[in-house]
């Protein structure tokens, strides 16, 4: 793994899912990813979080020019979900989603987000029937719209049509409300 200033890392399967499987990076896009530390031709198991953050910014500029950051990151979250579910690790997750159902998927969000190497505080709070709040606290790389897209994509795989809304943005803390 390349040197990481923070010591935090992100799974290589997230890179594979987003940049290879979903966005199909090539040409100038692939060159820009390589310049920030991700070489599609030489995948690694883990990458420094700084490389992930830079690669997401590259994806925004190359894939969604003219989009505001929130919209682009929401779409990147959807694309990450779709692409990750095509990876070896993602196929294992994908097989269980329809059987799991939306309520049990939401209950497992804290464990699923533990695929990241940084342990931020993740809580799922019931708000009502088929309504939940996913609260993430102390995330130094907070990307609420990316998480909203991931949640939306994952919930769709359980067979529901979710409404996913970022309701709090406060530095390292954010809330995403989910219903269906």
Task: Give a written overview of the molecule.
- The chain has 180 residues and is of the alpha+beta class.
- It has two domains: 9-84; 98-179, H-NOX domain (Alpha-Beta Complex), CATH 3.90.1520.
- It has helices spanning 12-22, 27-35, 49-63, 69-84, 88-107, 109-112, 144-157, and strands at 9-11, 46-48, 121-128, 131-137, 163-170, 173-179.
- It has a four-stranded antiparallel beta sheet, with helices on one face.
- A hairpin with a 2-residue loop joins strand 5 and strand 6.
- It is globular and about 45 Å long.
Strand order of the largest sheet: 3-4-6-5
Query: Remind me, CATH topology of the largest domain?
Result: H-NOX domain
Intertermini distance: 40 Å
The largest β sheet comes out as:
4 strands, antiparallel
- Gyration radius (Cα, Å) is 16 Å
Based on secondary structure, the structural category is alpha+beta
Topology:
Blueprint: E1 9-11, H1 12-22, H2 27-35, E2 46-48, H3 49-63, H4 69-84, H5 88-107, H6 109-112, E3 121-128, E4 131-137, H7 144-157, E5 163-170, E6 173-179
Antiparallel strand pairs: 1-2, 3-4, 4-6, 5-6
Comma- or semicolon-separated keywords:
6 strands; alpha+beta; H-NOX domain; 49% helix; two-stranded antiparallel ribbon; 180 residues
Task: Quickly describe the structure.
This protein has 180 residues and is α+β, with helices and mostly antiparallel strands. Helix content is 49%, strand content 20%.
């Amino acid at each position: 793994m390349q040197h990481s200033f923070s010591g935090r890392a992100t799974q290589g399967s997230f890179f594979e899912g987003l940049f290879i499987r979903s966005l199909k990076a090539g040409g100038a896009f692939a060159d820009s990813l390589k310049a920030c530390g991700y070489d599609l031709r030489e995948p690694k198991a883990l990458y420094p979080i700084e490389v992930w953050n830079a690669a997401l910014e590259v994806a925004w500029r190359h894939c969604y020019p003219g989009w505001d950051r929130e919209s682009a990151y929401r779409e990147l979250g959807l694309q990450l979900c779709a692409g990750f579910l095509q990876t070896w690790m993602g196929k294992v997750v994908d097989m269980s989603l329809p059987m799991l159902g939306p309520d049990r998927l939401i209950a497992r969000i804290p464990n699923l987000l533990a695929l990241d190497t940084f342990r931020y505080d993740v809580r799922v709070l019931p708000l009502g029937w088929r309504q939940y709040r996913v609260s993430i606290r102390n995330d130094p790389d907070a990307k609420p719209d990316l998480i909203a897209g991931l949640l939306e994509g994952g919930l769709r795989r359980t067979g529901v049509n979710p409404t996913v809304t970022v309701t709090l943005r406060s530095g390292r803390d954010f809330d995403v409300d989910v219903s269906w």
